[in-house]
Structures are given as C-alpha cells and as structure tokens.
Amino acid sequence: MPRHARINVPGALYHIMTRGIEKRKIFLGDVDRRDFIARLRNALAEHGCACFAWALMPNHIHLLLKSGNDGVSELLRSLLTGYAVSFNLRHKRVGHLFANRYKSIICDTEEYLLELTRYIHLNPLRAKIVNSMEELREFPWCGHGAICGAREAAWQDTREILLHFGDAPAAARRKYIEFVADGIGKDKPGSGVGAKRPQEGGGARISDERILGCQTFVRSVLAKRPAAADIGEDLRLKFNLGDILGVCAAQFGVKAEELRSVGRSKGVSKGKALAIFLCVNYLGLRNSEMARLTCMRDSSASLAARRGRCLAEQCRIFEKLIN
Length: 323
Fold this sequence. Notes:
Layout: E1 13-19, H1 30-47, E2 50-56, E3 60-66, H2 73-90, E4 103-107, H3 109-121, H4 123-126, H5 133-138, H6 144-148, H7 158-162, H8 169-181, E5 211-212, H9 215-224, H10 227-238, H11 241-251, H12 266-282, H13 287-293, H14 298-314, H15 317-322
Parallel strand pairs: 4-5
Antiparallel strand pairs: 1-3, 1-4, 2-3
Helix pairs in contact: 1-2, 11-12, 12-14, 13-14
C-alpha cells in the first residue's frame, strides 16, 4: 500500500523517529554522537526550528521539534544524509545507515508537548542505559539534563518546557523532574496515533496516522497543508501506478510499456522523468522502486525526478490529472 506523503507545515510540533537499517547501531561511540549533535545544532539554526526534547539511543533517534517557516523536511534531509555520509567515511563502510524513511508525526502542542518530552527523555531509563533518575540527569545523550540545569545546551529550547512548570527556574525544574519521574512505567502518549477518539461535534470522523490529536486538531492540520499535499491526496485517490505511467507516456507520444524498458528516446526519457517525479512525490513510491521499474540506475532516477519536476510545471500535468 503506498505510503502517505509527509505533511510539512510551519510552526507545528513534530515527533521524529528514525532507526538504523536492520535495527543496527547508528552510533558506535561518542565521536559519532558529538557529530550528530553538532549537525543538529547547525540545522536547527539554519532552518529556524526549535528542539524541545531528544534522545540518541544505540540504534534509533527521537527528536521533538517545532518546525520553521519551511517545515522540517529539509532540515531532516540535510541532517540525516550529512550524518550518514560522515558516519560511513569515519567507519569505512558503504550503504544505507537508516532504515527506510524517518517517521514524523504532527502533534497537538497543547496536549502532547509535555507528554512527549517526558516519553522521549525516559527512553534511556526504559532501555536500562541508565538505572535511575539521578543517572538520567547526568546522561549526556538526551535532553533531560539540560532542562534539569545539569549542563548547558544553548541550542535546545529548555525555556519553553520550564515555563509550563512556573516562572521561577529552580522551582520549575523541581516540578519538571517530578513530572518526568511520574511517567516511569506509563504508556507512550497517544498510543492510538491518528486521533482515534470519540467523534467530536458531528461530521465525518477523520483518522490520519501522521497526526496525533483530537478531531478538531486533525482537521486544522489537514486544512493547513500546502496545495501540493492536496494534489498528492487527489492523485492517490484517483490514480494507481499504471494510470500514472499511461498519462506520462501519452504526454510525450510514447507507449506506457516503453517507460518500463531501457529505451532512451527523447519521449521515453521525458515520460520516465515525469512518472518518477509523480510517483515518488505523490504516490509514496521509493526512488529505488521507480528506478527498477523504469530500468534505470538509482542515481539516474534521482536526476530524472528533478527533471520531472520541471516537466510537470511546463506541461501543467496537475491540471490535466486532477481535472
């Protein structure tokens, strides 16, 4: 089943999770962890995002971010790609470091900011990397210690969290620590992701695994999606892979089966480029999947997708597909 396109909106609270391929370790030592934190710090500044909570586990990462004006997609693309390249060079390895795509869930800030901060910062304790709240306070690879005042992390937004516990920093920290300790043994916040709650206020019930919040919140997030997200939803509802290949082939006067061959005529190349762009960005297919389908190398398919974006604008393909 095709994956949903990401919802990339400004000013939203995102819980980001990514893990190593085949659940392998993505940090082999503190040099790796310091490298990741340095990249995260720079990426937050570059993209105008805020980080409220984070945890670097041996084979996975949790981040709680507030998106900037451009959402979080570009930040995460540069952060994870840059770290993976650096890790491979440092450890003389090749291939993917992270498994598939990272997971991103937009969360209702009012209801889940504190709950998710607690959940993320308790990860090292749940995994028995540390054995007590005292050890968690001193653990350098999650954001709990910075909120407690145990160490400096100027790039982490600790003030936003502490303000929920009072104006006096010392008292707020004590209340925050009590709040975190009270979460030991509790379930993950919103275990039913996607607004799995009683319907509110009438109307059709909306469930979306990319959003954590009540029905009103889900609707408000979906209403804020860029036009491209709406186009993607329309494409997924109206067309399958075969339909897209047929439309793209017809656009350049070739047959759909030619897009699945090694042909390199001008029309075939343009049809492939347009199809790859549409299927990767709006149907949720992987670039590698489209590369195999169109008999291309992964690198060539990536270049074709960029060309396809320009072709889509030139031939006004969205208007033809949706209308």
